[in-house]
Structures are given as C-alpha cells and as structure tokens.
C-alpha cells in the first residue's frame, strides 16, 4: 500500500510537471527591440513581443512584464463593481424603481471601463493594428463612464439651488454630446482621420502622427473636458455655493475625497511620474500608469459611495422637486451613446482591419525583435 501511494504521488508530480512545462514564460524585450508604436515614455524594459498570439497575451499575465500590473489593477476591481451592480439589481427591485436607474447606469459604466482597459492592456501586443483598436475600445468605455457619472449626478448630486434649472434641463443632452466628442477626439489622437489621414500610408501613421506630444494633449483634453463639465454642479456645491440651496450633507466629504483622487489620477497620467525621473527603475512595478489605475479605481469607489449617500439622504426631497427620472434620460441615453461610440470605433478601425500593408508591418516587427 505504501509503495502504491508513493507511485501515485510520483505520477501526480510527473503530470503536474508536464502541465507546467506547457506554460512557457514569454521572452521580454527592451524599448530598442520593439517598434516605436509600442514605446512607453521612460519605460526601458519589460516589453512583450509585438506579434504575440492571443494565448501568449493571456499567459503573459502570469509573468512580470511592464503591462502585468496594468491589467490586474483594473481586471480585479471589475468584479467588485459587477458585484455592486448585481446587488442593486437583485436586492432593490431596481427594474421597477426608476429612482435607482441612474445608479444602475453608473455602476454598469464602472464595470465596463476597467474591463475594457484590462482587455486593451492584455491584447495590445497582438499587432500594431490590434494595439490601436484595443485602445479605441478603451477610450469608448472611458467616455461611457463619463456619461454614467453625469446621469447619476443629474439625479442625485445637483445642488438644491440648481434642481430644475435651465442648466439642469440641458445637462444630460450636453453630456451625451460630450461623450460622443470625447470618443471621437481620443480615437483621432492616435492616428488622425480614418481613410483621409491613414489608409495606404498606415505604416507611417503608426508613430501617432509623428507628434506624440500633440497626441497626448488631445487625449488629455478628450477626457478632461467631459470630466470638468460633469462636475460643474458638484464643484459649485462643494466650493462656491453659500447659504440656502447648497445641499450640505454627509456626502460632501466623500465627494471631496474622490475629487482629490481624480486630480491625482490626471496628474499621474499627464506627467509620467515617477518613471520620468528615473527611466528604467519603475518598468515593472510602480510606474505612473499603474498608479494611475489604482488611484482611478479608488476614486471611483469613493465616487460610488458619495452617489449612494446622496441617493439615500436626498430621496424624499428629490422625488418631489427634481425632474422625473425616465428611461430616456437614463438607460436610453446610455444606449444611444454606446451605439454611437461603437460606430465611431468601427469607423476608426476599418482602415486598420482592411489596410494593404499588414504583411509589411508583420515582417518589420518580426525582424526587429530578433536582434
């Protein structure tokens, strides 16, 4: 019996060894070994092969590269926000209570944007074309999150003095327009106008219009403007409003916390600190994009808590004084933006999917990574 037990353990060990041998660690490269389109500011090493298969991309999540923590810092929180969404759906009879619909839209956007981000970081090294398409979807998801914030702010966060004002009446339509413009500008910042500025000369366009600084500025503006617009009522409530109608309650301190985290997030994204101070020292752990992800998720958590607090504390008042919450100004607006944003992403992606120089790009990238 003892020998049979040892034999059984030995066979299991061999089987486990065979399974582990199938999982091969992917080789990582330096910035000089990958095409320019894959370069990250002040990140010197830890790059994956620019022609990785989908399987290679997934397996790379279990080894340390300069993208590993970018993926996990957004993939894991996705499940937290999904749990919050399902809790509201299953426990608060949300389908029949219109007052909860803005919260549902917001929570849905909180699930979509980290999931899209983690997928973009995972599969962006399948090819140069795939990299651009992945980030187009990432930008669309961020724009949807901006709209989700605006819809919930309109329902729960507007200061009493502005409820039912002219600005309140046009707030959601303007937020819808901002979402569409944000997706368009962010996608434009990568390659320019589809079919006009990139098609046959697509290889030359892969370096982001030869002006990475301009691309970066456009991308920051694409998301900063909707954020600032969405937060006009909140900024007024927290920092400018005096006297009656200012909505001074327990949620205000939570709003201040997530606002500070939002500005810290934007600072990290714009400055590339700390890696810009010490290139190569933060390639795998601690670079700005990882910190940007962490601050964004923590900020979103506090934003959710503040919205939930306002929703509960102001319910009796808002149900009487605020404009009625309808399908059109909640779920309907979100669906319209999803459809239009997907159309924009398809428009920007078509030249990449049906361009004429994929073969040339493949040869160039493969050759460069052999040295």
TrEMBL record:
Membrane topology: Multi-pass membrane protein
GO molecular function: metal ion binding; signaling receptor activity
Compartment annotation: Membrane
Amino-acid positions noted as binding Zn(2+) in the UniProt annotation, renumbered to this chain: 121, 289, 293
Keyword tags: Membrane, Metal-binding, Receptor, Transmembrane, Transmembrane helix, Zinc
Statement: the UniProt record of this protein carries the keyword Transmembrane: yes
Residue ranges crossing the lipid bilayer per the database entry: 98-116, 136-158, 170-196, 334-354
GO CC annotation: membrane
Signal peptide (UniProt feature, chain positions): none
InterPro entries linked: AdipoR/HlyIII-related (IPR004254)
UniProt key word Zinc-finger: no
PANTHER family hit by this protein: ADIPOR/PROGESTIN RECEPTOR-RELATED (PTHR20855), MEMBRANE PROGESTIN RECEPTOR GAMMA (PTHR20855:SF38)
Family: Belongs to the ADIPOR family.
Protein's UniProt name: Membrane progestin receptor gamma-B isoform X1
